[in-house]
Amino acid sequence: MTIARSSLINVSATPYYHCVSRCVRRSFLCGYDKHADKNFEHRREWIEKRLLLLAQTFCIDVCAYAIMSNHYHVVLHINVKDAESLSLEQVAERWLSLHSGPVLVNRFIRGDKLSGSERQRSEEIIELWRARLTSISWFMRLLNQYIASEANREDQCTGHFWEGRFKSQALLDEKALAAVMTYVDLNPVRAAIADTPEKSAFTSVKARIDALRKEQHTAPYLFPFVGNPREPMPDGIPFRLMDYLELVDWTGRQIRHDKRGHIDTTLPPILSRLGFNSAEWLSACTRIEQGRLVGSSRAIKAALPHLNRKRSSGFRLPDG
């Protein structure tokens, strides 16, 4: 049964969400389709460029992504503080970079003389746009509509390209965020199309590694890692980048025994901070797509009132 987005996405419960979109009939989004003898590899770049463009325009940060042959994953952070800090003109500039605006708002932006009622109506429209800049539904709509239009134009066909609405999961605490980001970044390794994270093309982990090699503070247009500060959910991913890379590498080796073998060193520091032991972590990373919510039992229980739900079908991570 279809569930209202207000019961799935609510920033009062959490600003972090995992979204997945799949092609209709599992047709090829990217890569080589041996049955049709066509190569769609270039479409990965379409998605990556569009995704990062929207991240610059919306007040929504990209934490992780992986673009596969017939689907893609993205972990998003709703940045309400960023949206609230924008002036009316800045909001309008961002929205109008993606849409054509009404004549009234264009006059407002130009500084034309307006009546009191005209100015009030312009401000109401721009405030609506401000709310949309923090809407994951609008973010995913503008991403998927663009890709579907480009693919249908290339294929010289019409009709649905995506398999219905995108799937979303609320990530209710730091454990859930770390588990799902790791799961997303390891998709190519799990699918045996890449040996290691640093060779996993069109993933956020490769983008971060490439930036690290260039001695950049963070990968362009991705939500940065800010360490492990005391305040909950800071303006950045609450882990250290190097700890996260160790975590991804360790988890990937455990899941793909035939690739790089077992690691006989101590577990990454982040595992201890999040309260996981190795068995719990492996269980989380192999069953992550179950349910609409991801988090500890305490986090899921606390989030239910914000999502207008009495019962949950969430994937429970161990309480720390």
Structure overview:
It is a single chain. The protein is an alpha/beta fold and 320 residues long. The chain has helices at residues 43-57, 80-85, 88-96, 103-110, 116-132, 136-155, 174-185, 187-190, 204-213, 241-255, 257-260, 269-274, 278-286, 297-303; strands spanning 16-22, 32-33, 38-39, 60-67, 71-78, 167-171, 293-296, 315-317. The strands form 2 sheets. Strands 4-5-1-6-7-8 form a 6-stranded mixed β-sheet, sandwiched between helices. The chain has a two-stranded antiparallel ribbon with strand order 2-3. Strand 2 (32-33) and strand 3 (38-39) form a beta hairpin. Helix 1 runs antiparallel to helix 6 (136-155). It is globular and about 65 Å long. Mean pLDDT is 81; it is low at 258-271.
Tell me how many strands there are. 8
Low-confidence stretches: 258-271
Label the structural class: alpha/beta
Q: Helix share of residues?
A: 40-55%
| Assembly status | single chain
How does the overall form come out from the CA principal axes? globular
Strand proportion: 5-15%
Number of distinct helices: 14
| Rg, nearest Å | 21 Å
Largest sheet: 6 strands, mixed
The averaged pLDDT comes out at 81
Give the SSE order as H and E letters: EEEHEEHHHHHEHHHHHHHEHE
> Could you give the order of strands across the largest sheet?
4-5-1-6-7-8
Termini, distance in Å?
33 Å
